[in-house]
Design a protein that fits this description.
This protein has 19 helices and 5 strands. With 420 residues, the chain is mainly α. The chain has a 3-stranded antiparallel beta sheet with strand order 1-2-3. It has a two-stranded antiparallel ribbon with strand order 4-5. A hairpin with a 5-residue loop joins strand 4 and strand 5. Helix 3 runs antiparallel to helix 4. The longest helix is centred in the first third of the chain and has 41 residues. It is extended.
């Protein structure tokens, strides 16, 4: 017979091929096809999410400026004790490398990096770069000190030595209001420079408050949408979704017009006699403006998960509780409300994570007291160009969000969160 069919201990043989082998090949082919189907999505996640986060984490500790601009001086300083000013060889090396840096236009990078740690060194580097070209013969130590007294300050050289390695913890220390002392010890920043820890606490507090307000406002709206007749429920749904069809800047600008001292709300309060014309309430460019505007913008992210869960709750549960003798409040609190917790959990996660990293609305309506940590991160990215500090602040914010997420998962359980 051309075809043989024989039983074997390891499987049935058909046309000389093992059935198990064919099955493994088919499964492997299916896995490859499935992987190819999700490959575009995987590439998108890697390039738009994973790589930027890794780059941010690297920038928060990467500090190659000193070792790249003055590499020989940085190497000599590693053997320096730090108890007294460096010797003539270190000054001579610095003079030659400052000449090169001035010609290569990299002196500004060095000055900017040193100025982050000690104010005034950028001006020292710029002045020295202009005059150091005239120095041809030793002694260079006295010549540099004559150009600027900072070269005779031992703390300047200690700072250059500390910044010589390509990896630093300075950005993370600055992000939590700490710094290195001239001797290399970690100490707190002066009181007038302690801003970042307070900003983190403010961001957490405002995010929690906005999330709570969204729950208090969103729960009744979601309940009405889930229990009203369809035509009224659809009308409420359109009103909830309407903000999504309007630009974020337009919505924020509308709140500026409503909440300002000469705005609509103050005019109404004056007209009804609640406040006097000379006692108008300042509700914009402060925390009040941030809370009101962000609650309005993020409210739909609480309403939609709650509505989708409430829509699946059968009214017969509450009717059964009422028939067994429970009053309306007990039936609601003991029977209905526990079934809405998955929707509340989903809304809390969405609103809190969005609010903790919000940027545009606090920047427009927050003023000085309503700014969040995201606004400071944007400032260092766009204005001060201190990308290392911005990356450190962003990394701490990311770690904080992940920690809160894990805490939520531990206490509530992310599996209990539902969107419908």
């Amino acid at each position: 017979m051309a075809e043989t069919l024989t039983g074997a201990s390891d499987g049935m043989v058909i046309d000389g091929a093992n059935l198990k082998t064919r099955l493994r090949r088919a499964e492997r082919r299916n896995r490859v096809m499935a992987f190819l189907l999700v490959l575009p999505l995987l590439a998108f996640i890697v390039f738009s999410f994973v790589i930027p986060i890794l780059d941010m984490l690297m920038r928060s500790v990467d500090d190659p400026t000193v070792s790249e601009v003055v590499p020989n001086t940085a190497g000599l300083l590693q053997e320096w004790s730090g108890d007294e000013l460096p010797d003539e060889a270190v000054y001579a090396s610095m003079v030659e490398e400052l000449k090169t840096a001035y010609e290569d236009k990299t002196l500004g990078q060095l000055g900017k990096r040193l100025n982050y740690e000690k104010s005034g060194l950028r001006g020292t580097l710029n002045k020295t770069g202009r005059r150091v070209r005239k120095l041809e013969e030793p002694p260079f130590k006295e010549a540099l000190i004559k150009i600027d007294k900072d070269w005779g300050d031992i703390d300047t050289w200690r700072l250059i030595k500390r910044l010589s390695p390509t990896v630093t913890a300075s950005y993370y220390l600055a992000a939590v209001d700490l710094k290195y002392s001239p001797e290399g010890n970690i100490e707190r920043q002066p009181d007038f420079k302690q801003i970042y820890v307070n900003l983190f606490w403010r961001t957490l507090w405002l995010s929690l408050l906005i999330t709570l307000l969204c729950i208090l406002l969103g729960f009744p709206v979601s309940y009405l949408m889930a229990n009203l007749p369809m035509r009224y429920s659809n009308l409420l749904m359109i009103m909830v979704l309407l903000p999504f069809w309007t630009s974020l800047l337009v919505r924020t600008s509308a709140w500026i017009a409503i909440l300002q001292s000469e705005g609509i709300l103050n005019d109404i309060l004056v007209w009804v006699g609640v406040i006097g014309d000379d006692n108008r309430i300042q509700m914009i460019y402060n925390q009040t403006g941030t809370i009101v505007a962000m609650t309005h913008i993020l409210l739909p992210f609480m309403v939609l998960p709650l509505f989708s869960v409430m829509k699946t709750i059968s009214p017969s549960y509450v009717r059964a509780a009422r028939s067994l003798g429970a009053n309306p409040f007990t039936a609601f609190w003991k029977v209905y409300f526990p079934q809405t917790l998955p929707g509340i959990g989903a809304g809390v996660i969405l609103v809190f994570i969005l609010s903790i990293g919000y940027y545009i609305t606090p920047a427009l309506v927050g003023g000085q007291s309503g700014q969040l940590i995201s606004n400071i991160i944007a400032y260092h990215m766009q204005s001060s160009l201190n990308w290392g500090l911005a990356a450190a602040l962003g990394s701490i914010l990311l770690a904080l969000v992940v920690a809160l997420y894990l805490t939520y998962n531990k206490i509530v359980g992310i599996d209990n969160m539902k969107l419908g």
